[in-house]
Specification:
heterodimer; A: alpha/beta; Rossmann fold; 31% helix; B: alpha/beta; six-stranded mixed β-sheet; 13 helices; 44% helix
Chain lengths: 228, 333
């Protein structure tokens, strides 16, 4: 089974892109399943299922969604194997720009949208910098010039990825993205595989439920800003 | 890893390759010491800083050489001239063959007509995808009469089609001048200031109402925005084909806009049902049921009608103008 990780900031169009692409893949006889990771709630599973795409949801609640995702990814792969999918897409929550869900030797996709502004590529960490495929959405509503500048800015932080435009509403570009995903590497097991980059670190008193503010209550991995 | 960069001091690197500085600041690595070589600087970078910006030390130099190679390619790109795009028919949604061979040449305007869902978007997608009988329509696209290098399919910097549509807006928080300059710089144009001035002048000649270089792009009127987008695509976009999805009537000289694109050797494809625009094209493709049902050249009789429609349009424009000036619309219009 082929495995794809899809990451990207909230509201960038991950779900729409996956839906449109999965539809073109299924039309070509490729069976696709999706696991959606989110934080508090998600209606996306129903959205997928309405389109005939089997889906599962993982909600991280008060845990870092990235850490939650990596602790569950092997089980997701098992579910995909048992369901005999040709291709399993794992959509991560992408709640912080420092997310790093991509895995070595597993096809990594990052979705970002033109509307988020030309400085956005600089603000996103490993999920963009280490992606194999960068999908740019919402290109139909900004000027051609902004699209070209946006692509240039992506190139500055990821010199090797394939950059492709997909329209999440009309599905334009979905067929082309599907062709790339069909060539993704097959993955039998994730046991011992490496993340492409370390996930955002955490482990301070606030991770463990501390609610009181003040130096006395900050313990563990605490970092201070310099205000000059 | 490219050792020639690793052995250079940052000072020399930034001086010889101004784009290098942008690479590091884009990654969140600004204020690097410029006296040392790049190799030394990278080796001395704080591990925590690398974790914060999200890049591994061993990847940094490789990414940098990749990026510089890309910059070099863009700069050298004698825009591989596209002298023709040929589309060979496939089939419509019911599988009926299309049986056509269409040749599109720079400087020509081809219109696209047909109801919603008739396959206009798929046709353009086939061109962008350089379809080789492997798209849902089974069409084949040739560049300069030959099968294209398929690596081009995913080479975003060499995209074949640039787009202009009514739904497009400027979203950047910049003045018109800063905006065009930014675009020119990202295209590695040798003299960004000169091309910026040209584009602003052209845009103003297309727009009914003038704007200044200092006007924020988000404050431009509908007509001014469209004028600036057209002038920018004509002069700065790297794509040889321009797809226009209707140009509205709002305060823009549409005839000049089209001839500007044609003068810049763009292959113009225009989806429109506006009688004047549709007849301005040399030919039009008529879509039905997902396929091209026929191709019609604009006939001399149609051209004669175009003159008539233009006169009608001029009269309506005069009424609009009079309305704007608060005049009474009476008498022999």
């Amino acid at each position: 089974m082929r495995l794809i990780t899809v990451a990207g900031p909230p509201s960038s169009g991950k779900t729409a892109v996956i839906c449109k692409t999965a539809e073109t893949l299924q039309a070509d006889g490729v069976s696709v399943g999706v696991v959606k990771f989110d934080c508090l709630s998600s209606g996306d599973q129903a959205l997928y299922e309405r389109r005939g795409i089997p889906a599962r949801t993982g909600l991280s609640g008060n845990l870092c969604p990235d850490h939650f995702y990596v602790s569950n990814i092997e089980d997701c792969l098992d579910w995909g194997e048992q369901s005999s999918f040709d291709l399993l897409v794992v959509e991560s929550a992408g709640l912080c720009n420092r997310c790093a869900p991509h895995i070595k030797d597993v096809c990594a996709v990052c979705v970002i949208d033109n509307l988020s502004g030309v400085d956005t590529p600089r603000k996103i960490g490993p999920m963009l910098k280490m992606a194999d495929i960068v999908v740019v959405t919402k290109g139909d509503i900004v000027s051609q010039a902004e699209r070209e500048v946006f692509v240039h800015r992506i190139r500055q932080v990821n010199s090797s990825a394939v950059i492709i435009h997909v329209n999440g509403l009309t599905g334009q570009g979905g067929h082309e993205l599907g062709r790339l995903l069909r060539d993704a590497a097959a993955v039998d097991s994730l046991q011992g595989k490496l993340l492409r980059f370390s996930m955002p670190a955490a482990l301070c008193s606030y991770c463990l439920g501390q609610r009181r503010i003040g130096a006395d209550f900050q313990m563990g991995n605490v970092k201070k800003m310099e205000l000059g | 890893m490219d050792n020639s960069y690793a052995d250079m001091t940052l000072e020399r690197l930034f001086c010889e390759q101004p784009h290098a500085r942008e690479f590091f600041s884009a990654l969140g690595l600004s204020a690097l010491p410029e006296g040392q070589t790049l190799g030394t600087t990278v080796a001395a970078l704080n591990e925590e800083l690398l974790l914060d910006v999200g890049i591994e030390r061993q990847d940094l130099l490789r990414q940098f050489s990749d990026y510089m190679a890309g910059v070099e390619r863009l700069r050298k790109q004698q825009q591989a001239l596209v002298s023709s795009v040929t589309v060979l028919g496939g089939h419509d949604k019911s599988g009926n063959p299309e049986n056509f061979r269409l040749e599109l040449r720079p400087g020509e305007v081809t219109c696209i007509v047909g109801p919603t869902g008739s396959g206009k978007s798929r046709f353009l997608a086939d061109i962008e995808w350089l379809a080789q009988g492997d798209s849902p329509t089974g069409r084949t696209v040739l560049i300069n009469g030959a099968a294209p290098d398929l690596a081009r399919r995913y080479a975003v910097e060499q995209k074949l089609v640039a787009q202009l549509s009514q739904n497009m807006n400027f979203v950047m928080d910049l003045s018109a001048e800063e905006f065009i300059r930014l675009h020119a710089e990202s295209r590695m144009i040798a003299d960004p200031a000169a091309i910026t001035a040209t584009i602003l002048e052209l845009a103003n000649s297309l727009a009914g109402e003038q704007f200044t270089p200092l006007t924020p792009v988000t404050a431009l009127s509908g007509g001014q925005s469209r004028a600036l987008m057209i002038a920018d695509v004509a002069c700065l976009s790297s794509s040889p084909i321009v797809l226009i999805d209707e140009i509205e009537n709002a305060g823009i000289d549409r005839k000049r806009a089209l001839s500007l694109l044609a003068d810049q050797y763009k292959i113009v494809l225009m989806a429109t049902h506006d009688p004047i625009l549709a007849l301005m094209g040399q030919q039009r493709l008529i879509f039905k049921n997902g396929g091209v049902s026929s191709i019609r050249s604009t006939s001399p009789a149609e051209r004669a009608n175009l003159t008539l429609f233009e006169a009608m349009d001029a009269r309506l424009t005069a009424v609009r103008h009079a309305l704007r000036n608060g005049e009474e619309i009476a008498g022999g219009w």
